[in-house]
Amino acid sequence: MFLVIFLCMCSWSLEGVFGSESVMEGDSVLLSVNITETQRRDGIMWTYGPHTIPLAKLNAENNKTYNGPDGRFRDRLKLSESGSLIITDVRIKHSGLYYIYTTSQETPLKIFNITVYTHLPVPIISRVSSQISSSSSSSSDCCVLCSVMNVTRVSLSWYNGSRVHSSISVSDLNIRLSLPLEVEYQDTNTYRCVVNNPITNHTQHLHVTQLCHTCSEFSCCCGFTEAVIRLVVSALVGVATVAFLVYDVRSGAVLDPV
Ligand SMILES: *[C@@H]1O[C@H](CO)[C@@H](O)[C@H](O)[C@H]1NC(C)=O
Ligand SMILES: *[C@@H]1O[C@H](CO)[C@@H](O)[C@H](O)[C@H]1NC(C)=O
Ligand SMILES: *[C@@H]1O[C@H](CO)[C@@H](O)[C@H](O)[C@H]1NC(C)=O
Ligand SMILES: *[C@@H]1O[C@H](CO)[C@@H](O)[C@H](O)[C@H]1NC(C)=O
Ligand SMILES: *[C@@H]1O[C@H](CO)[C@@H](O)[C@H](O)[C@H]1NC(C)=O
Ligand SMILES: *[C@@H]1O[C@H](CO)[C@@H](O)[C@H](O)[C@H]1NC(C)=O
């Protein structure tokens, strides 16, 4: 019995009951149907989730749209004459399955799978100190990091020429998503970092010569030992200054007549 039901459900999908759509945040989505005069007279209902959250009702006498229990759909829903539902200014939270039912049937007339994607930022490539990034890296390696901020449902990839060198994908909101890459200082291959979702993508090229050969005083070219020496020297200078000040204050106090 269950198997029969399951097979029936499969055959609906095969008959195109199921519509899938990828949209960008801010877009309007049209869940398109053409209801018959009979279906309209009997009444139709749109829900978010199967038989769960009512979104809109339409019948011979009137029509009505709802806000959803959390107000998620407030001022966003419109019904058309054909029974289609229009959702304006969609956000990530409007992703999900939308069902349209006729009053006379338990099974949905059509199901829509809507997936909302955010606008993508351009990735940022920055240099990281190789001592911090990995103990295995040699002094001839330059370690860079490709990052994007505040992204949901994206992949971040490094390309070496036309090949994908490494990739990471996330489905939830990530405040900061990063992917490292180690290249040689003399590397002449072309590298680019790409952020993409099924709708769009952005690319940032790595300029090995610019990023790996610039040498600001405290960042790259100074090796680990040099950094330690700098640290020790500045610490010693600090201690000496404090000692001198303390001595100065004390001798002042002794000499001042109170
Ligand atoms: C509904 O009908 C209109 C015109 O009759 C057609 O352009 C549209 O594609 C139809 N939509 C669906 C979902 O069948
Ligand atoms: C919904 O009802 C209003 C009046 O209450 C009417 O103006 C509008 O055309 C109706 N919309 C549909 C899709 O039937
Ligand atoms: C809806 O579409 C998304 C994106 O294509 C997919 O990941 C998800 O599995 C689909 N949901 C269903 C129930 O098919
Ligand atoms: C990321 O989102 C947070 C919180 O919404 C915001 O404060 C921050 O400015 C955003 N950063 C970027 C780079 O968009
Ligand atoms: C990029 O590809 C070239 C040639 O295919 C290879 O020699 C080089 O090691 C690759 N770079 C990295 C970082 O793997
Ligand atoms: C980026 O988008 C362009 C079209 O805008 C497409 O040709 C290209 O294949 C996409 N690249 C990736 C890595 O998704």
UniProtKB/TrEMBL annotation:
InterPro entries: Ig-like_dom, Ig-like_dom_sf, Ig-like_fold, Ig_sub. The keyword Signal applies. Residues 1-19 form the signal peptide. Residues 123-209 form the Ig-like domain. PROSITE patterns: IG_LIKE. It comes from the Eukaryota. The keyword Signal applies. Keywords: Receptor, Signal. This is Natural killer cell receptor 2B4-like. It comes from Triplophysa rosa (Cave loach).
